[in-house]
Amino acid sequence: MTINVLVTGGAGFLAINTAKFFKAQAASVFGIGRSKDDSDLECYDRWIESSVTCKALLEFDVRFDLVVHCGGGSSVGYAQENPLEDFYKTVAGVAELLEFVKKNNPEAHVIYPSSPAVHGQQPDVPIDEDDEIKPVSVYGYHKEMAENLLICGHKLFGLKVSIIRFYSIYGVGLKKQLLWDACKKIVSSPSAVFWGDGNETRDWIHVDDAVGLIHFLFTISEPPLVVNGGGGASMTVRCVIELLERYLGVPPSSSFNGSAKAGDPKYYCAGQRVLKGLGWSPKVSIQDGLFDYVEWFKKNYG
Questions:
Q1: Distance of CA 233 to the CA centre of its chain
Q2: Rounded to whole angstroms, how far apart are CA atoms 211 and 196?
Q3: Which of 62, 180, 217, 281 sees the fewest Cβ atoms within 10 Å?
Q4: ∠ CA(27), CA(28), CA(33), 5° rounding?
Q5: How far is CA 102 from CA 70, 85, 161, in A?
Q6: Rounded distance, CA 94 to CA 147, Å?
Q7: How many CA atoms lie within 13 A of 96 on its CB side?
Q8: Distance between CA atoms of 12 and 4, rounded to whole angstroms?
Q9: What Rg, from alpha-carbon coordinates, does the chain have?
Q10: What residue ranges define each of the domains in the chain, with the CATH number in brackets?
Q11: What is the rounded CA–CA span in Å between residue 98 and residue 265?
Q12: What is the pLDDT along the chain (302 residues), one digit of tens a residue?
């Protein structure tokens, strides 16, 4: 039987990869969001150019089996500078989606890609799903609000909800964030300078694994309410930059300015307790994933 999948924020990196995956599985895939001139929307059976509102979602006139809500703000810096706009995108968008699901499609499984930004500053140890929620940025606070709305929908209205706190998603085609910015800097400057001191850590998960986790949660009978989406191993930003330089064939010459960006936690590493209990683990190593990313970058932009 063909399943119906809705992907919101459908022009984004994770959203497009999710849509392509389910399309390859012979699902009917529907998308909604704000597209750009270079957005690849051919993976959608139907696309609606709109913010996520209950009214817009009703236009599909479809009963969805799965809703992957990729809509909402995606930048710590942008949220810090535009808190009201980010609130409408992130928090109000979830409220609109839940109203639609509760009234019109209560059997749908809603999967929400969230963020470890809800945990704020943490020591340099793996972060468990149950660790304290104490955001330090507008972005983190809004993600917490969105999560609470989803948990409310689950506990009070019986909606099937899964929240995945994705760490650093990357992969071929990503044209923003650290890897993209770093590759551009490294090839254009003999002595690129980066924020921080280089000892900040990040936990990387390849987009193929991120999509695989979404699919896995959709297929199991009792998915967790909240789960970390990460590789379970941290890597310093300095080490990432050195790997990029090596794969780009550039002598190591980058440096760090010692200044931290507002709202950026210093350490990120995803605890694997819940995922190990489910028997799921990522497949793509950071070394292989970064190599493929750099090869794509060199072919298209190097």
A1: 17
A2: 30
A3: 281
A4: 120
A5: 18, 25, 12
A6: 9
A7: 20
A8: 19
A9: 19
A10: 4-167+205-229 (3.40.50.720), 170-202+233-300 (3.90.25.10)
A11: 30
A12: 799 999 999 999 999 999 999 999 999 999 999 998 777 899 999 999 999 999 999 999 999 999 999 999 988 999 999 999 999 999 999 999 999 999 999 999 999 999 999 999 999 999 999 999 999 999 999 999 999 999 999 999 999 999 999 999 999 999 999 999 999 999 998 789 999 999 999 999 999 999 999 999 999 999 999 999 999 899 999 999 999 999 999 998 899 999 988 788 899 999 999 999 999 999 999 999 999 999 999 999 87
Residues 223 and 219: their CA atoms lie apart, in Å, by 8
Q: What is the pTM of this model?
A: 0.96
Residue type, 223: P
Beta carbons of 142 and 87 less than 8 angstroms apart: yes
Q: Which amino acid is at 15?
A: A
Crossing angle for the helix pair 237-248 and 177-188, to the nearest 10 degrees:
50
Tell me if 146 sits within 8 A of 8, measured CB to CB: no
Q: In the sheet that 234-236 helps form, which strands lie side by side, from edge to edge? A: 168-170, 201-206, 234-236
Residue 265's alpha-carbon distances to 17, 77, 199, in angstroms, are: 27, 12, 12
Q: In the numeric block, which tokens belong to residue 29?
A: 């895939």
